[in-house]
Amino acid sequence: CFSANELITYEALGLCEPGKAGEMIDRGDNTYGGKYVVNPSGGLISKGHPLGATGIAQCAELCWQLRGEAGKRQVEGATLALQHNIGLGGASVVGLYAMGFPSHRVRQVGLRKVAAATSEIGFRVTPYFKILEQVMLLDEDNTVDKFRGIFGFKVQKKTGEE
């Protein structure tokens, strides 16, 4: 995750000969267009190095890459991904991920189109939910799906009832 570890790791994983990591970087073999694409998300430092969550952050990025869901960071045609991480006390992990069915690559998350409210009685906010529903249904750029967030609203009637 730190710059010095990058050189050591390339050599330890056999991506280059010992002592040749600097040359590998100078050739651009660790980025887009090179032999390997390393840390297309910017690596763990770009995520704030969240101790305890670094491994799952790597796992998520690799899965998105293999599924073709990494947006501007996408490594075209990715079918194999390697995860490496070191931890406290000498702990180390290396994982290899493979795209099992490249010909069946599809978006894993879809837009769920649901009614804005099951009942309009007593809720002053219903017209606004109807507007949101219409905007989401007409979302030609699929922005809602790309955001991949969860929207939650707590709505109360005039009586305070939810």
UniProtKB/TrEMBL annotation:
GO terms for biological process: lipid transport. Residues 1-89 form the Thiolase C-terminal domain. Pfam families: Thiolase_C_1. This is propanoyl-CoA C-acyltransferase. Its EC number is 2.3.1.176. It comes from Lygus hesperus. It is an enzyme of class 2 (transferase). The lineage of its organism: Eukaryota, Metazoa, Ecdysozoa, Arthropoda, Hexapoda. One of its GO terms (molecular function) is lipid binding. PROSITE patterns: THIOLASE_2.
